[in-house]
Amino acid sequence: MRLITIDDVRAASDRIGGHALRTPLLRQTWDERELWLKPENLQPIGAFKVRGAVNALAALDEEVRARGVVSYSSGNHAQAVAYAAQQFGVPATIVVQDGAPQVKISATKAFGAEVVEAPMTERRAVARRLAERLGRVVIPPFDHPDVIAGQGTIGLEIAEDLPAVSTVLVPISGGGLASGVGTAITALCPDARVIGVEPELAADTAESLRAGRLVRWDAADRARTIADGLRTEPSELTFAHLRATVEGVVTVTEDEIRQAMRVLATRARLVAEPSGAVSVAAWLFHQHELPAGPTVAVVTGGNVDPTLLAEVLQAR
Amino acid sequence: MRLITIDDVRAASDRIGGHALRTPLLRQTWDERELWLKPENLQPIGAFKVRGAVNALAALDEEVRARGVVSYSSGNHAQAVAYAAQQFGVPATIVVQDGAPQVKISATKAFGAEVVEAPMTERRAVARRLAERLGRVVIPPFDHPDVIAGQGTIGLEIAEDLPAVSTVLVPISGGGLASGVGTAITALCPDARVIGVEPELAADTAESLRAGRLVRWDAADRARTIADGLRTEPSELTFAHLRATVEGVVTVTEDEIRQAMRVLATRARLVAEPSGAVSVAAWLFHQHELPAGPTVAVVTGGNVDPTLLAEVLQAR
After folding, report:
1. Residues A238, A234: Cα–Cα separation, whole Å
2. ipTM score of complex
């Protein structure tokens, strides 16, 4: 299996400029430790997913791209592909699960995409059939080298902006983000460590990395966490990258995730969704499991129900 | 009266690098109009005030600066001066009003500053006496060329990042920010217009600009607005800058400010304090009073009581 390289990430970086935001690193002074946030919630669509989606579309032959793309997701990847397709002026069809929240469907349609509903377990198959029928390419949420390389531009930017970085904290779900960031950081900052973060309730990758092989958790178990963006599991492709570039995984509790959301809103003035706050939860509550030195926590997204955010702000 | 020039703003930009964040412009796609946000809530201390404070300290002779500084404020300027003094390793004493919120006092002390309480109306006099006794310089919140030039770096960055800007929306209170931004934009983007924004309940500058002279509103009247950072009034120095560089003032209601806070949190994933949301309130609700074309709204700060933010998120 071919793993992506830093050259793939550099190529992605050249492609996504002008479509994705080059996010700054934000120095935090919450305590004496050196923490920087990478605020991917500020991207168009409010999540890092725009990097992988734009790179995947940009890497297509122009003629192929012109026919349009298909994807499947009920989360941020749906909006990311819709946004990327709009940027390139090509059609997009997104397959979402039956009964997906209307607000997410509207957001995807707002970027000009067509939305098709299908049962959760059949989304991928429906997307593939649609793509075949329409002569289009499928842009998967993480199981694709160009998507991984696109997410890896976050690691490239961290290495450029903070070469002395010691630790990079990234959420792991399908593993595309951690694979890309791991590839970039391993290549550019060989002394730094990339550490994954998972909810305790969806800690399949922590277990898999310990076991040295993919251990599958039941989807219903993974669905227990409030972090709705972290309920997926790695593919063979992303797991191979994770084994090669990720040092370990820290797991966080549901309450720690909520507290991290609150700290992000009040001290960093950033709205993070639960999945976007887990890296900060690890930093706040698992200090003893982390290496010392300058740390970057990737805040992956900020698409959160206002009622949940209000609830978190009023806790205590 | 000498007004600051673009050269002063350029000098400020050179001085503040490394101490203040060069904030990105964030493109929003809320409707078909072209809106960019300048998120100053992401600065260290959570507000643009860090630019003016750092520039004022950096511009001092090293020997003078080493003796330390004094300031008076109960808002973001207090933390900005404390932060700037810590960056330069010099002592700072901040005079706050009797009974100022403990959370603000703690935040200021966290940067190593000494905090002295005094009655609201005597803060400035107490600060001056303290400075005289300690042989220190006073760094006022807005009535100072170096503070104005520091805030003006926001305009310089806007001109660099979006040369085709048509309109820049900035809150006006003491007027330091609008004076600095107005100076930079007038010099670098002569076709663009800088438009001030005030709460209806503290619209003294709107009235002053119409009258062509400083019209004073009672402090108790200005204090009615939820936008606690916009309860001050311009000085002769800032008003001279405003007359020269600001096209006009749009006024917004209290409810519009709250709605803008909600939109910023849910659609831009930014936590804004009421004062930081007024420019977006103008853009959302006063379209007919604004010129067409690419618009930048400066989101000046994000230091808001979590309870108020939760309340705003749950409205409707």
Report:
1. 6
2. 0.96
